[in-house]
TrEMBL record:
InterPro entries: Homeodomain-like_sf, InsJ-like_HTH, RNaseH_sf, Tc1-like_DDE_dom, Transpos_IS630-like, Winged_HTH_dom. Residues 91-148 form the Winged helix-turn helix domain. Residues 164-305 form the Tc1-like transposase DDE domain. This is IS630 family transposase. Residues 10-60 form the Insertion element IS150 protein InsJ-like helix-turn-helix domain. One of its GO terms (molecular function) is nucleic acid binding.
Length: 339
């Protein structure tokens, strides 16, 4: 309703109550809430008819306009290019409190948390779960990989009719609880499981066409273990293998390099940039394994290994799910072009 119409309605309600109509009946007659009538009467008693006069609408003076456009642009730049600790702030994430602290420190402006939320919304920001990135990342090397190195590898794979695999390792633990469970409100569900701690490891390799190869083992990743997996990869593939891995010390070891040099007609290995695990689509399979196996309750190492094998065998018969891993924005560059 226009401000004038609202003011007129309030006056009519108050006059009706002053003429003897109960507040409950007045609310019913005029189609307003009982709470509104009560509030209007209290304001009228405290300030008289003028207290209910229509007020000017629009942005209020004060917090809503405390930051200038230039300050908003600076704030936007800090939030998109820096983290709080890089600006010497005592915060780890960009929370409302951290942003308020930054505004007060840089601009000498004090805002409420609600006002910070308003600025964030108007500037196009939303609160999201962050993704971890290492300070040691070499951004130029990552850009070179995306724009130059990987396209060359993919082009070679097409010319040589090679199978291009992305490989990685992950560990599974018996005390890793995944998923959610219904329970009464306020009562955290309890998972019954063995108190023993044990684990196993998985090494896997996937293609953007949905192929999956894997090996489950309970030792540490060593040269012998990795070479054994590469032998399996060669044996299970009907053509030459290109495999892309991270820079784990085993992948770069002298023993592995010498083994590969003797089999260059069968397999070649390429290394991702350092501290850039998000470039490897096989990381998404690792997360999938942990979600699937983490909802089971194995009693010993052999049971955990069997759970892992069972889940991976299941995924081998679902190539469409493996292929969908390559649709994630950060690995979409690897989704197309390989036959």
């Amino acid at each position: 309703m226009p401000a004038e119409a609202q003011s007129e309605l309030r006056v009519r309600v108050i006059n009706a109550v002053l003429d003897g109509l109960s507040q409950t009946k007045a609310a019913e007659v005029f189609g307003v809430s009982r709470w509104s009538v009560n509030q209007w009467m209290a304001i009228h008693r405290a300030g008289g008819p003028k207290a209910l006069a229509p007020k000017k609408r629009g942005r209020r003076k004060g917090e809503a306009g405390k930051l200038t456009p230039a300050q908003c642009r600076k704030l936007h730049g800090w939030l998109t290019r820096k983290m709080p600790d890089q600006l010497s702030l005592p915060f780890y994430l960009w929370t409302r409190a951290a942003i308020r602290h930054l505004i007060r420190e840089q601009f000498g402006v004090s805002l409420s948390l609600a006002s910070v939320s308003g600025y964030m919304k108007r500037m196009g920001f939303s609160s999201q779960r962050p993704v971890r990135r290492a300070y040691e990342r070499n951004e130029p090397a990552i850009q070179a990989w995306l724009k130059d190195e990987y396209p060359k590898i993919a082009a070679r794979a097409r010319r040589e009719h090679a199978a291009l695999y992305w490989s990685d390792e992950t560990g599974l633990r018996s005390d890793d609880v995944r998923g959610r469970s219904f329970a009464l409100k306020g009562q955290t569900p309890i998972v019954r499981a063995t108190g023993k701690r044990f684990g196993c490891n998985v090494i896997s390799a996937i293609t953007n066409k949905g192929e999956l190869n894997f090996m489950v083992f309970d030792s540490n990743l060593t040269n012998d273990v990795f070479i054994r997996f590469l032998r399996r990869l060669i044996k299970q593939s009907r053509r030459k293998v290109f495999v892309i891995v991270d820079r784990h010390p085993v992948h770069r070891s002298k023993a592995v390099r010498e083994w590969l040099a003797r089999r260059v007609e069968q397999i070649e290995m390429f290394l991702l940039p350092t501290y850039a695990p998000e470039l490897n689509p096989d990381e998404l399979l690792n997360a999938d394994i942990k979600r699937g196996v983490g909802q089971r309750r194995p009693r010993d190492t052999e049971a955990l290994k069997q759970d892992a094998r069972s889940w991976l065998y299941h995924r081998q018969h679902q190539p469409q799910i493996i292929a969908r891993f390559f649709e994630a924005p950060h690995v979409a560059y690897a989704a197309d072009g390989i036959i």
